[in-house]
Structures are given as structure tokens and as C-alpha cells.
TrEMBL record, chain A:
Residue stretches making up the Exoribonuclease phosphorolytic domain: 13-133
Any one GO cellular component localisation term in the record: nucleolus
UniProt xrefs under SUPFAM superfamilies: Ribonuclease PH domain 2-like, Ribosomal protein S5 domain 2-like
GO molecular-function terms, A-Z: exonuclease activity; RNA binding
Protein name in the entry: Exosome complex exonuclease RRP46 homolog
Pfam families, per database record: RNase_PH (PF01138)
GO biological process terms held by the UniProt record: nuclear mRNA surveillance; poly(A)-dependent snoRNA 3'-end processing; rRNA catabolic process; rRNA processing; U4 snRNA 3'-end processing
InterPro entries: ExoRNase_PH_dom1, ExoRNase_PH_dom2_sf, PNPase/RNase_PH_dom_sf, Ribosomal_Su5_D2-typ_SF, RNase_PH
Keywords tagged on the record: Exonuclease, Exosome, Hydrolase, Nuclease, Nucleus, RNA-binding, rRNA processing
Species of origin: Lithocarpus litseifolius
Protein family according to the UniProt entry: Belongs to the RNase PH family.
Localization per record: Nucleus, Nucleolus
From TrEMBL, chain B:
Keywords assigned by UniProt, alphabetized: Cytoplasm, Exosome, Nucleus, RNA-binding, rRNA processing
Cell compartment(s), UniProt: Cytoplasm; Nucleus, Nucleolus
PANTHER family noted in UniProt: EXOSOME COMPLEX COMPONENT RRP40 (PTHR21321:SF1), PNAS-3 RELATED (PTHR21321)
Xref: Gene3D superfamilies: 2.40.50.100, K Homology domain, type 1 (3.30.1370.10), Nucleic acid-binding proteins (2.40.50.140)
GO cellular component, one term: cytoplasmic exosome (RNase complex)
Alphabetized GO MF terms: RNA binding
Family: Belongs to the RRP40 family.
Protein known as: Ribosomal RNA-processing protein 40
Length: 243, 243
């Protein structure tokens, strides 16, 4: 059964995406990611010497600070910090700069649904802008489940609150490869079929969740191209030929 | 997004790549020795990209990813501008915009003995050479070149230091002389020291010359050669009109 969305989008249609890099002067890397009306700005500082007390000094440490648009910092912000930190830890190569800390500061500018995926996309772009070595990029998307089992992508805040359940999913980006069979295989399956992070809110059946996974993965191809286009180097290419 | 059904691109050289792209497949290149520069890592049989940038190749066997960041990755043999942060019994601790502080041995000066140790205060700007830069260890610096002579390394007095990106530093140091320095040098007299870590120092007899040179260099990052010369001409015209 088709559902009419308030802004006239189809079920699989994403809101307009915008990404800009290197917007903050003092931060070592910065990026902002906009999905419709949801906008998040991320700044990255580092790597700086020294790790925190309980962290492993043989690996680089990532510290995430989440700043909400308004209000005091509470448990919800800490939960978001932990989710972003775990996601970024799995895409960064942690043994290149041991005993260093990279600080990622996430500032919510406006929240209109799909906030955590927007923040993860912005954090990934900011890490690339700062030159932190990464294994691959991460693309995040939010899927909402209606009562009838109908799935819509990239919900607004009203849609999120009125639906039965939603899931946010983070996938590795689609990579270009010189190999004919495509990406690296992990245990026989291409790496792009993996899931980096997944979180759900509300109750959904296993079949619905697997449907969400499929729809989300298909939609991340478009986000991958937006991210790839925005990460192109911005310097004039004819001058950087020094070998 | 364009579709490439069965054929994969044969080579990514001189194209923009993002983290995760597989650029070389070692299984078809046996009995060859490759040298991998910054931004690339080896993952079993595949060479994949760690940082976003342009992939470059130099005969016979060197591959690297060219990217421009605000922070510096220390490499042996680079000349950088460092700021003294602390002094210990055996070393000066110098900040070179890398993941950790670098050590400058107290005796690493031409004719340096225990009796004539230079007294550098905190905040002193030095032009130094990176001797060792191993992963996980603090880099080691020296104020002499490889044969032990002073060769312009050491304290930089007066003048003005500003930060740039590593890409701009490489462009300023490229040979033949980059257009902006060439155009400035024809009309003004000044001296400059460029550090590969993203710091530039300019000194001239009058402050207005220093300001014009610094502004010209800072604005030249995203301009092509012809645009740089036009910008320099405009700045010098303004300078002559105001004196």
C-alpha cells in the first residue's frame, strides 16, 4: 500500500544532499552535511600526541564530542557520541599513528529527522578533509517502517515520530577497483555487502529489518557518488606536478 | 551514475581517488618491486588508498597519492619550519605540525659542542631538517645538512610566519619557480623560507612588502599560473599607488 509523504517524495527518494569541506579556518578538517533541513557541522582536530587513561596506547584514539543545537548535554548525547565513535573506529586505520588522539566535534545545526546518519556522513567527510588515514568511507542512511510493512527512506522528523519503527544503517561506500571482480572479499562476500553500524528504534520483525537493509544498501550508491564528488581535491591540478 | 558493466578502468593514475579504492592488483604484477609513497597501503594482494587525493606515478615504479592537508606527516629528508616548545637537557622539543613533538638534539648544529649550546626561548622559529621519522616515535631534527654544514638551517630572525596547507608549500617549492614567487621576485626584494609542513616565513625591508608577499602567497593556492601573475600585478600596483 503506497503512502503519500508530506513533501511529495516517493518511498525511495532521498532529500536533496549537500556537502561542503574545509569550512572552518582553525580546525584541521571540517565538513558540513545537509539532508533536506537536517544540517550537521563536524570539526576534526588531530592527530595530537597522547591518549586518555583507559585507552590502548598502541592504537590511535578517537574522541567524539556531540553538541546539540540547544539544551544541556545528557544521556542522549553520550549515546550518540558512543555510536559515532564506534563507527569511526571501524573505518580508521588505528595502528598508523599510535599513542595519538583525534578529536571529532559534532555540532547539530538543525534536526529534521535522520540526525545520526547525517552526523556520521559529515564526520566521515571531515576525517577525509583532515587527512586521517581511512580503510574506506562510510555512508549512513535512515529507513522508517510504517504499520503496513511499507518502508520509506530518509524520513523527516514528523515522519520519524509517526512511524512504527526506524533503523539507521551505515554501510561501506562503493569503491572503484582495478580488479575485475570489484572489491575485496571478506569471507566470500564483497566488502560492500557488509554493515558497519546498525541501530533501531521501535519494534520491527526480522523480515522487515532485512528489507530495510536491502533498500538502504541500494540507496547508498547515490550518496557514495555525492561524497566522492565532494572529496575531489580543490587545488589547480596543473601546478601540482612536482614529483 | 554511469554504469561500467564488465570492464573496470585499467589505471587510476592522475585521477582522483578516495579511501578504499583499490588501485593496483599485485597478483598480475609478479617479480616487480614497487615503491609506495604517502596515502597508499598494502592489503594482501591489493594496494588500496588511505587518503583522498590524486594518484601519481613516476617511472619506474613509484606510486603515491598527492593530497593537501593542514597537518603534516613527518618524512625523513624534509625541510620544515618548527617552533620551539620546550628545552630539555639533551634536546629541544619542537612543534612541526605533526602527530607528536619532534626532538632537536642540542649538539645538532655546525660546530656544536657542549660549551656553545644555543639558547632558544619558547616560541623561537627555526628552519630545520627532519633526520628520522619512524612511525610511533617522535621525529628527530637537525640544524645541519647531511654533511654537517649549516646550509641556511637554524634560527629565523624578524620577518613574518604564516600557516599554509602542505599542498601550497609543495607548489611554492616546485621547480621551475612557481608563478607567484617568480612574479613577486621581479618587482620586489624579499626573502622567504618555506617548510614542507605548511609554514611559510617572509622577510623584507619594509612591512608593506612583507604584507603584499604574504597575501599574494596565501591567495595563490587555488589559482592557475596565469591567474597568479594577474593577481600579483594588481597587488603590486596597489602597493605602488599607496607609497
Amino acid at each position: 500500500m503506497e503512502i503519500d509523504r508530506l513533501d511529495g517524495r516517493k518511498a525511495n527518494q532521498l532529500r536533496p544532499l549537500a556537502c561542503s569541506r574545509n569550512i572552518l579556518n582553525r580546525a584541521h578538517g571540517s565538513a558540513s552535511w545537509t539532508q533536506g533541513d537536517t544540517k550537521v557541522l563536524v570539526a576534526v582536530y588531530g592527530p595530537k600526541a597522547g591518549t586518555k587513561k583507559n585507552e590502548n596506547p598502541e592504537k590511535a584514539c578517537i574522541e567524539v564530542i556531540w553538541k546539540p543545537k540547544s539544551g544541556q548535554i545528557g544521556k542522549l548525547e553520550r549515546e550518540h557520541e558512543m555510536i559515532v565513535k564506534r563507527t569511526l573506529q571501524s573505518i580508521c586505520i588505528l595502528n598508523i599513528n599510535p599513542n595519538t588522539t583525534t578529536s571529532v566535534i559534532v555540532q547539530v545545526i538543525n534536526d529534521d529527522g535522520a540526525l545520526l546518519p547525517c552526523a556520521i556522513n559529515a564526520a566521515c567527510a571531515a576525517l577525509v578533509d583532515a587527512g586521517i588515514p581511512l580503510k574506506h568511507l562510510a555512508v549512513a542512511i535512515c529507513c522508517c517502517l510504517a504499520d503496513s510493512g511499507y518502508i520509506i527512506l530518509d524520513p523527516t522528523k514528523l515522519e520519524e515520530q509517526s512511524m512504527k519503527a526506524y533503523a539507521y544503517l551505515v554501510f561501506p561506500n562503493s569503491i572503484l577497483s582495478v580488479r575485475p571482480e570489484g572489491s575485496l572479499k571478506v569471507q566470500g562476500e564483497p566488502m560492500e555487502h557488509g554493515v558497519i553500524t546498525s541501530g533501531t528504534q521501535g519494534a520491527m520483525s526480522v523480515d522487515d529489518y532485512l528489507n530495510c537493509l536491502e533498500r538502504g544498501r541500494a540507496a547508498t550508491a547515490k550518496m557514495s557518488t555525492v561524497l566522492r564528488r565532494n572529496l575531489q581535491p580543490q587545488i589547480a591540478s596543473d601546478l601540482s606536478k612536482a614529483g | 551514475m554511469e554504469n561500467k558493466p564488465t570492464s573496470s578502468p585499467t589505471s587510476f593514475v592522475d585521477q582522483s581517488v578516495v579511501p578504499g579504492d583499490v588501485v593496483l592488483d599485485l597478483s598480475n604484477m609478479t617479480n616487480q618491486t614497487l615503491k609506495l609513497g604517502g596515502g597508499l597501503r598494502q592489503d594482501c594482494d591489493a594496494i588500496s588508498v588511505m587518503k583522498a587525493g590524486k594518484l601519481r606515478f613516476s617511472n619506474p615504479n613509484k606510486y603515491w597519492v598527492e593530497s593537501s592537508q593542514k597537518r603534516y606527516v613527518p618524512r625523513a629528508g624534509d625541510s620544515v619550519l618548527g617552533i620551539v616548545v620546550d628545552s630539555k637537557a639533551d634536546n629541544f622539543l619542537v612543534d612541526i605540525k605533526g602527530p607528536g613533538l619532534a626532538f632537536l638534539p642540542v649538539l645538532a648544529f655546525e660546530g656544536g659542542t657542549r660549551r656553545n649550546i644555543p639558547k632558544f626561548e619558547i616560541g623561537t622559529l627555526l628552519y630545520v631538517r627532519v633526520v628520522k621519522a619512524n612511525p610511533g616515535m617522535n621525529p628527530e631534527l637537525s640544524c645541519t645538512d647531511a654533511s654537517g654544514k649549516a646550509a641556511e638551517f637554524g634560527l629565523l630572525k624578524d620577518g613574518y610566519m604564516f600557516e599554509s596547507s602542505t599542498g601550497l608549500s609543495r607548489m611554492l617549492l616546485s621547480s621551475p619557480t612557481c608563478p607567484v614567487l617568480d612574479a613577486l621576485g621581479k618587482k620586489l626584494s624579499f626573502e622567504t623560507a618555506v617548510g614542507l609542513n605548511g609554514r611559510v616565513w617572509v622577510n623584507a625591508s619594509s612591512p608593506s612588502t612583507v604584507i603584499v608577499v604574504a597575501n599574494a602567497i596565501m591567495n595563490s593556492e587555488s589559482l592557475s599560473g596565469v591567474q597568479q601573475r594577474i593577481m600579483v600585478e594588481k597587488l603590486i600596483q596597489n602597493l605602488k599607488l599607496s607609497t
